[in-house]
Design a protein that fits this description.
By secondary structure, the chain is mostly helical. It has two domains: about 60 residues, Arc Repressor Mutant, subunit A, CATH 1.10.10.10; about 140 residues, Four Helix Bundle (Hemerythrin (Met), subunit A) (Up-down Bundle). Helix content is about 75%, strand content about 5%. It is elongated, with a radius of gyration of 18 Å.
């Protein structure tokens, strides 16, 4: 396995991301660049770069006259986002399965293997690999408007997916479920695959919601 060399900014991103997802940094709490730089023993440059990356991930807001703050991770929002995902992604999978090629399925299997080898940065790398895995399975649906809506929801939920992988024990569960979903796609069993996909997405929703409610009760 190749050694991954991380930049100072990447290390800062991971440190701040974990603080936000774990509730160590509360929603709405200002992210003071000078204080973070001192705490993490870096200059303000990687702090600024890290906050911009975390803004792209939906974990940080830049507000006028207030600077950077941690965004609200809402248990109420999780229900709507993941339930819509389950409906739209099952539709995409239904139309895609008959047209998936052996090459598509092999690529999806390769991504599962990559996910199993990612141990140092589960919240980020596994989240991106998870995104790629699902996209391959939906890639032959030829439903561009449904795909656009689903993709927006998936990207909106990435911060919750990272929380699931990092804090709610989702990584091992997801891997087993990905393998089962892939086998159903190989078998061209569209009905069973779509039913399983919905359960996979809604199961993650329940794990994340329970964790968020726990964190909210501790605030």
């Amino acid at each position: 396995m190749a050694i991954v060399h991380k930049t100072r900014t990447q290390l800062v991103v991971e440190a701040i991301r974990e603080k936000i997802l774990s509730g160590d940094i509360k929603a709405g709490e200002p992210l003071r660049q000078a204080a973070l730089a001192e705490e993490l023993n870096v200059s303000r440059i990687p702090i600024r770069e890290a906050l911009l990356q975390l803004e792209a991930e939906g974990l940080v807001n830049f507000e006028p006259h207030k600077g950077a703050t941690a965004t609200l991770l809402s248990a109420a929002q999780v229900d709507e986002v993941f339930e819509l995902r389950a409906l739209l992604e099952a539709e995409l999978l239904k139309y895609s399965i008959p047209h998936l090629t052996d090459a598509d399925l092999t690529e999806a299997e390769d991504i599962i293997e990559q996910m199993e080898s990612v141990v140092e940065e589960p919240a980020n790398s596994s989240g991106e690999l998870n995104y790629r895995f699902h996209n391959i399975l939906y890639s032959k649906a030829d439903r561009p408007q449904t795909a656009e809506l689903a993709d927006a929801l998936i990207k909106n939920s990435l911060r919750y997916v990272r929380m699931h992988l990092m804090l709610a024990g989702g990584k091992n569960t997801a891997q087993c479920e990905h393998k089962e979903l892939l086998q159903l796609c190989r078998d061209k069993d569209s009905t069973a695959a779509c039913k399983f996909l919905k359960a996979h997405i809604l199961g993650a929703k329940d794990d994340i919601k329970n964790l968020l409610l726990k964190l909210e009760s501790e605030q």
